[in-house]
């Protein structure tokens, strides 16, 4: 933050600045030196705000640096933005830097190399989501030389003449052309002849015309820093960076220097459309299964029907000519069909997009798995059951006799041994035979083919019998458990038990039948009964038919024991600490099966033998002795005797006698000087016998002997009180009582509480309570107090009030109040003391008096002053008064007041209570007097109009009433802001404004209003006018400029803060261009024009539409005006318009759009039409004759015709076979049609050509406008056997084999003569031309079939020289007497991928070292060419060869021709 320096002599305050390069100068709390050292702000406070009164004026010297530092608050941390006027300083280049200091929570603005134009108004804006807070401040620049600019104006020095400098561009931006998506950014750079200037960049293109902002000029709209644009400024070099350029970014970019009289330089950017991106809408299945001898289709779909794809198997391309596959493209649905699948067709099949594939989506693959033909069963296996050593046969039938099957048991293959296990194959029947089955043969028997399976279970049973039978004889005692065991051979065979021939049914309790596994079984009889005697039989099947095997046992049950029984026992009596015993008789019948158990319980608790009792068992009785008999052991003894069969129990009443327990309570009543009455309650336990008497004992506490003496005894045991006499008066006694029965006396029970004082039963009263002063006056006091808690045993006769005056140590007896003179009020006693002296301070206390005497005095009352109790509140002196003062002056009210009791004071401003705070001080003072005298002072050191103006009220309140007094304070200040500034009328050169006056005029009337405006382009405020009313007209505006307006109110105290218009106001007339028309539709067309129809604009802009401009654009150009409509060429159809656009070029693509025009100008263009090809709307078919040529093909090779045909609408095609009529898609023929605007293309593919396919094909194209036919010849060349004749072997022209050309025919004679004449190249060429026409061949009487067959079977080669892996065509210079070879395509360079077309001549430089020369081909990657030889034949004068050839290009068609070469 800049720190003000000393006041200068001129009266100006020089405000300090902090240079940016003073890093450690110790100049105080300097901000960070650069934004790189910035630290983030910290949350402070709540709302966004600045420090209470931030500095609003800063200054610095020209060419130095200056800092502005503002302390800010806010939670969350606010966003900080800096502006000069409406310019965001973050967009103003490198000289303006902003950062924050988290330690001091300050925001900092730094300006490097301060310039005079940097002087002006700035503002800092805070925003943390709760609204914006801004602080405005000014920066002043002192010109170089130390003189303040304003001081220079004050001295009125004559301005020096300005030297006019010439500004020009040293480097201008150049036009750029890029393709969308090909680069990340493109830049334009301009360099100025001077440094320190500011530049702005503008763009003018179609997109800028659509922007609804009024900030437009001839250069277009301004470019702002953001996601699209970035700027780099380096002194005099200005660079605009356009990020990710798109087609919409194309246009003219201008760099403008406003300070240099709008010095401008421009460059254009052209952005081509990006390449199309094709992908797959639906991909191939990841995996697909097929079967041998079956069709299999792979399908996928591209997102565009025009996408070109190729199919690959395991990385190798699948050609259209491959007859195994059928490839189709139907509206983007790509299909590859395998006609008859074979096992070797398994693999990975891939469909790839040839061009413009999306990255990562240009191919899709499918894993194809081809399986064998599935063999099925025609029957199923049936389950089998057998016994050990039996034979088992499984059989099943197959569909085919050659089906291979596999037999398995439980998933494990069965291996036949030829004897016990046999597998038999009989035609379609398959058998499994198992001889001598074993138990381990059981399981699941399955049979499988490669595609089917059947299974059945085989069960093998045991040859069953008893391994171990039951014992013949068994016996047990009644109620005991007995088990019968047996074991059989078959672990799964059932075993049933019978008793005396009847089946035994287990019930789970008495009888159980258990299968122990492994053939072991048990019959268990729990608690056998006498009726269970008999024969036990076990039965099991033998697994052979219905045969049953048995095992028997004889079973006997003996009688068991009975439950015990005890005899009766009389009640038992004993004496404590002596003995107590009892005898109990018992008996048990039957065979002993369990031990006899005896238990003794008392009060639910089991007694322990040897500790609580002794127990002796005799043959027919039990002896029971109680150990250590005590009184508490008396009660009911429960004796329990039991065995396994049951129990018996007896209750025996036992009484053990002892001395009684002490009496329960002892208390003393009716106390007098020498006697009292002792009371008690009987003991809880009389000791088992009646109480005979009670003994009373006394302890004379006053005598101090500590001995208890018997003082009384009751005659019987039923007395509960006795009078004790002959006691010593005023002695203290304690008493206790004993109970006695025939056993003896009990322990004593002593009285509780304090000792008993032997005296009469009354005393002096207890002290009274503290007096409460309820009312008072100058000479009396009324008070109330609580009566004594106890009256001492006698009624209170009267009360005595004692009085003590302040500073006096002696209590004086006051008024006596009899019981009749006092009042009882809610448990309180009320009395009055008269005769007090006014102004004296008193305390009071009370004594109560009965026949025993006065009580002790009660606690004293609080002090009181004898004075009048109630006086209404009132002010003393001048009281409240009105105050008028200037803002910043102090406000002070000093008020004295009184009242009884002392009133509370409250200050109010406009009805709201004031409290002491940082702006207001409220103080209270008091005088030390009998009656209240207080002073309150309200003080406001610096008055503020908004806060402090209003009605001030002092309010005094006490029990005697309320008093108020008021005074008005008027703080004078500048007015508040005007309200509701709005433009009432907007025109191109003036704007009429109106506003409402301020809500507060500042305490003094408003004299006038100041109206100013700022042109957004210049950023400078200009005074428009001053006025006394609330409206004004700002004149002299520039049309098309944006303006901001402000209005300030002025009174004698100064000028108010201005009120601004909201958004900038565009100086323009109230009407505007129309909205865009609707999208045009093409309703009609021909090859030179189109007819468009469109909807009118929804908004005419406030003025009628005068005409429409129709623009057109071809595929590669920009938009141009094609037609300006008027009433003759534009026809209205209700809400739609229609016009015809002429002058189009046939075959070109066009797009159209419409612009509406009114008085304000042109509307935004309408959406453009889809691309339209200028063509005939109705055109009869026209087949391309250049593509409809004849073809030659070898047998079993593929022939393809692809022919275009113009026509509108696109024609349909019909192909006709020379012999079979109309051709349709089949295994031998494939027909594809593809439409385009202006025509269609048809393709005929002949797979595996046959000799019968030769002949003339007819292609017919038809549409509604007509039809056209064309004939195409197909020549199918057959194969001939290899031949080694004299002509090929030795060059003998007289060879007479079937391939010979010799004879008397004119054509061959001419040929023979030509080969012998080395000087006849012209005849050679003539003959060559004749050889290509059928007429010449007929004239020469050469058999056409032999001629064509010989040509087709000649070796295929291309002359080249081989060196390593490189292949080079021999380059031989031409000569006039050499014949030429016209090749369609030859291959040159170092690999088979480089091709060119041309004519090659062969001359004498080709070495001929023998009659036979071999040239080996070296094409490694081209399977169409295999190693071959070229045979040369030498005559006396020349060497010649016959070489039909085909081109290297796979897409070109095959040709055959004869060449005669003179070497």
Description of the molecule:
With 1463 residues, the chain is mostly beta strands. Helices cover 4% and strands 45% of the residues. The chain is built from eight helices and 114 strands. Strands 84, 85, 87, 88, 89 and 90 form a six-stranded antiparallel beta sheet that branches. It starts with a strand and ends in a 23-residue tail after the last strand. The model is unreliable at 1-30, 146-162 and 1303-1463 (pLDDT under 50).
How is the secondary structure organized here?
Layout: E1 4-7, E2 13-15, E3 44-50, E4 57-61, E5 66-74, E6 79-84, E7 87-88, E8 96-101, E9 106-111, E10 120-127, E11 132-142, H1 149-155, E12 169-171, E13 176-179, E14 185-192, E15 200-204, H2 206-210, E16 221-222, E17 229-234, E18 237-243, E19 251-257, E20 263-272, E21 280-282, E22 287-291, E23 296-302, E24 309-313, E25 316-317, E26 325-330, E27 333-338, E28 347-353, E29 363-371, E30 384-387, E31 392-397, E32 406-409, E33 412-413, E34 421-426, E35 429-434, E36 443-448, E37 453-461, E38 466-468, E39 473-477, E40 482-488, E41 496-499, E42 502-503, E43 511-517, E44 520-525, E45 534-541, E46 548-558, E47 565-566, E48 572-575, E49 581-587, E50 597-602, E51 605-606, E52 613-617, E53 621-626, E54 635-643, E55 646-657, E56 666-669, E57 676-680, E58 691-700, E59 708-713, E60 721-724, E61 732-741, E62 749-750, E63 756-757, E64 772-776, E65 780-785, E66 796-805, E67 812-818, E68 823-825, E69 828-834, E70 841-850, E71 853-854, E72 864-865, E73 871-876, E74 883-886, E75 891-900, E76 904-909, E77 912-913, E78 921-926, ...
């Amino acid at each position: 933050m800049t720190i003000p320096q000393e006041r200068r002599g001129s009266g100006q305050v020089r405000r300090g600045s902090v240079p940016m390069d003073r890093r450690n100068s110790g100049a105080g709390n300097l901000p960070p030196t650069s934004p790189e050292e910035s630290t983030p702000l910290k949350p402070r406070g709540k709302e966004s705000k600045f420090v209470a009164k931030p500095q609003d004026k800063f200054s610095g010297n020209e060419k130095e640096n200056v800092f502005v530092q503002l302390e800010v608050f806010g939670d969350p941390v606010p966003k900080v933005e800096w502006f000069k006027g409406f310019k965001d300083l973050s967009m103003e280049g490198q000289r303006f830097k902003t950062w924050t200091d988290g330690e001091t929570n300050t925001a900092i603005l730094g300006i490097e190399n301060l310039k005079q134009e940097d002087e002006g108004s700035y503002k800092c804006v805070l925003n943390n989501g709760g609204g914006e807070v801004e602080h405005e401040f000014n920066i002043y620049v002192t010109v170089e030389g130390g003189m303040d600019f304003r001081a220079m104006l004050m001295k009125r020095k004559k301005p020096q003449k300005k030297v006019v400098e010439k500004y020009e561009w040293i480097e201008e931006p150049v036009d750029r052309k890029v393709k969308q998506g090909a680069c990340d950014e493109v830049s334009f750079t301009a360099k100025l002849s001077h440094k320190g200037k500011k530049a702005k960049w503008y763009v003018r293109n179609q997109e800028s015309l659509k922007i609804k902002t009024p900030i437009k000029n001839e250069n277009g709209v301004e470019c702002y820093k953001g996601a699209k644009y970035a700027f780099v400024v380096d002194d005099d070099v200005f660079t605009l960076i356009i990020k990710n350029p798109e087609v919409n970014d194309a246009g003219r970019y201008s760099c403008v220097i406003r300070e240099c009289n709008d010095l401008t330089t421009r460059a254009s950017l052209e952005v081509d459309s990006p390449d199309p991106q094709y992908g797959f809408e639906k991909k191939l299945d990841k995996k697909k299964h097929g079967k041998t001898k079956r069709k299999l289709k792979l399908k996928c779909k591209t997102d565009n029907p025009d996408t070109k794809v190729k199919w690959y198997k395991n990385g190798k391309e699948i050609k259209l000519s491959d007859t195994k596959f059928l490839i189709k493209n139907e509206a983007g649905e790509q299909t590859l069909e395998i006609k008859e699948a074979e096992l070797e067709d398994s693999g990975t099949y891939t469909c790839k997009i040839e061009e413009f594939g999306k990255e990562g989506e240009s191919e899709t693959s499918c894993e194809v798995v081809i399986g064998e033909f599935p063999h099925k069963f025609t029957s199923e296996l049936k389950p089998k059951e057998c016994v050990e050593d039996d034979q088992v046969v499984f059989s099943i039938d197959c569909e085919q006799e050659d089906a291979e099957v596999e037999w398995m048991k439980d998933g494990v293959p069965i291996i036949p041994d030829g004897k016990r296990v046999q597998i038999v194959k009989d035609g379609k029947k398959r058998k499994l035979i198992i001889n001598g089955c074993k138990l381990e043969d059981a399981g699941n028997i399955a049979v499988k083919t490669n595609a089917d399976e059947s299974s059945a279970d085989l069960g093998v049973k045991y040859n069953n019998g008893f391994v171990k039978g039951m014992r013949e004889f068994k016996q047990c005692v009644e109620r005991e458990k007995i088990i019968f065991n047996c074991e059989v051979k078959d672990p799964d065979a059932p075993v049933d038990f019978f008793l005396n021939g009847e089946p035994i049914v287990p019930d789970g309790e008495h009888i159980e039948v258990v299968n122990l596994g492994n053939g072991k079984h048990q019959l268990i009889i729990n608690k056998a009964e006498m009726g269970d005697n008999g024969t036990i039989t076990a039965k099991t099947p033998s697994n052979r038919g219905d045969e049953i095997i048995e095992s028997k046992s004889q079973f006997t049950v003996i009688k068991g024991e009975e439950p015990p029984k005890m005899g009766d026992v009389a009640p038992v009596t004993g004496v404590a600490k002596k003995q107590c015993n009892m005898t109990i008789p018992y008996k048990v019948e039957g065979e002993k099966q369990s031990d006899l158990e005896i238990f003794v319980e008392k009060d639910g608790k089991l007694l322990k033998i040897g500790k609580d009792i002794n127990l002796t068992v005799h043959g027919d009785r039990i002896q029971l002795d109680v150990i250590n008999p005590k009184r508490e052991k008396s009660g009911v003894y429960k004796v329990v005797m039991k065995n396994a069969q049951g129990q018996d129990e007896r209750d025996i009443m036992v009484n053990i006698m002892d001395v009684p327990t002490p009496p329960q309570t002892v208390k003393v009543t009716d106390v007098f000087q020498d006697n009292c009455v002792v009371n008690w309650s009987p003991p809880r336990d009389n000791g088992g016998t009646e109480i005979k008497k009670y003994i009373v004992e006394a302890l004379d506490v006053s005598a101090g002997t500590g001995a208890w003496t018997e003082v009384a005894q009751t005659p019987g045991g039923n007395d509960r009180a006795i009078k004790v006499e002959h006691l010593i008066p005023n002695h203290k006694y304690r008493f206790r009582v004993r109970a006695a029965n025939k056993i003896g006396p009990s322990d004593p029970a002593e009285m509780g509480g304090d000792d008993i004082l032997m005296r009469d039963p009354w005393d002096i009263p207890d002290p009274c309570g503290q007096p409460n002063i309820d009312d008072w006056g100058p000479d009396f006091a009324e008070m109330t107090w609580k009566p004594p808690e106890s009256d001492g045993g006698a009624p209170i006769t009267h009360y005595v009030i004692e009085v003590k005056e302040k500073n006096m140590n002696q209590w004086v007896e006051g008024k006596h109040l009899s019981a009749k003179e006092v009042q009882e009020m809610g448990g309180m006693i009320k009395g009055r003391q008269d005769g007090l002296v006014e102004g004296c301070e008193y305390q009071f206390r009370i004594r109560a008096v009965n026949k025993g005497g006065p009580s002790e005095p009660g606690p004293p009352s609080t002090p009181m002053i004898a004075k009048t109790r109630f006086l209404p509140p009132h002010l003393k002196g001048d009281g409240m008064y009105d105050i008028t003062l200037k803002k910043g002056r102090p406000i002070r009210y000093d008020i004295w007041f009184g009242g009884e009791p002392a009133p509370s004071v409250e200050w109010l401003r406009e009805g709201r209570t004031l409290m002491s705070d940082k702006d207001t001080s409220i103080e209270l003072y008091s005088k030390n007097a009998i009656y209240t005298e207080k002073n309150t002072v309200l003080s406001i050191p610096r008055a503020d109009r908004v806060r402090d103006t209003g009605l001030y009220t002092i309010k005094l309140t006490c029990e005697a009433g309320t008093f108020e007094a008021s005074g008005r304070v008027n703080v004078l200040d500048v007015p508040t802001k005007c309200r509701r500034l709005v433009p009432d009328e907007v025109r191109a050169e003036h704007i009429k404004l109106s506003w409402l006056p301020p809500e507060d005029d500042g305490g003094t009337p408003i004299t006038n209003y100041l109206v100013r405006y700022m042109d957004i382009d210049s950023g400078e405020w200009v005074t428009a006018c001053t006025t006394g009313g609330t409206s004004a007209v700002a004149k002299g505006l520039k049309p098309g400029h944006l303006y901001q307006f402000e209005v300030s109110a002025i009174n004698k105290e100064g000028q108010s803060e201005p009120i601004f218009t909201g958004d900038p106001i565009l100086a323009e007339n109230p009407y505007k261009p129309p909205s865009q028309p609707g999208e045009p539709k093409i309703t009609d067309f021909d090859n030179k024009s189109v007819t468009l129809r469109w909807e009118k604009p929804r908004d005419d802009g406030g003025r009628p539409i005068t005409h429409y401009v129709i623009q057109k654009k071809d595929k590669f150009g920009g938009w141009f005006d094609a037609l300006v409509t008027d009433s003759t060429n534009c026809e209205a159809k209700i809400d739609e318009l229609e016009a015809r656009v002429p002058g189009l070029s046939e075959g070109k693509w066009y797009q159209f759009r419409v612009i509406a025009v009114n008085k304000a100008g042109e509307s935004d263009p309408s959406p453009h039409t889809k691309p339209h090809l200028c063509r005939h709307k109705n055109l009869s078919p026209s087949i391309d004759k250049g593509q409809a040529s004849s073809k030659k093909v070898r047998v079993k090779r593929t022939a393809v015709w692809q022919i275009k045909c113009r026509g509108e609408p696109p024609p349909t095609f019909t192909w006709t076979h020379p012999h079979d009529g109309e051709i349709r898609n089949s295994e031998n023929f494939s027909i594809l049609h593809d439409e385009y605007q202006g025509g269609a293309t048809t393709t005929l593919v002949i797979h595996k050509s046959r000799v019968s396919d030769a002949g003339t094909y007819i292609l017919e194209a038809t549409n509604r406008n007509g039809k056209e036919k064309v004939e195409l010849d197909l020549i199918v060349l057959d194969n001939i056997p290899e031949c080694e004749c004299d002509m090929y072997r030795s060059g003998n022209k007289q060879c007479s084999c079937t391939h010979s050309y010799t004879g008397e025919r004119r054509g061959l004679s001419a040929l023979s003569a030509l080969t012998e004449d080395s000087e006849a190249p012209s005849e050679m060429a003539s003959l060559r031309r004749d050889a290509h026409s059928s007429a010449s061949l007929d004239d020469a009487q050469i058999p056409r079939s032999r001629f064509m067959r010989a040509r087709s079977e000649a070796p295929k080669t291309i002359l080249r020289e081989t060196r390593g892996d490189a292949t080079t065509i021999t380059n031989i210079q031409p000569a006039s007497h050499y014949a030429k070879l016209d090749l369609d395509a030859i291959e040159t360079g170092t690999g088979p991928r480089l091709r060119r077309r041309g004519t090659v001549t062969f001359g004498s430089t080709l070495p001929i070292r023998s009659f036979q020369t071999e040239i080996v081909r070296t094409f490694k990657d081209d399977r169409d060419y295999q190693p071959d030889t070229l045979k040369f034949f030498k005559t006396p004068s020349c060497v010649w060869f016959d070489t039909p050839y085909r081109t290297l290009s796979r897409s070109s068609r095959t040709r055959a021709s004869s060449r005669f070469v003179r070497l």
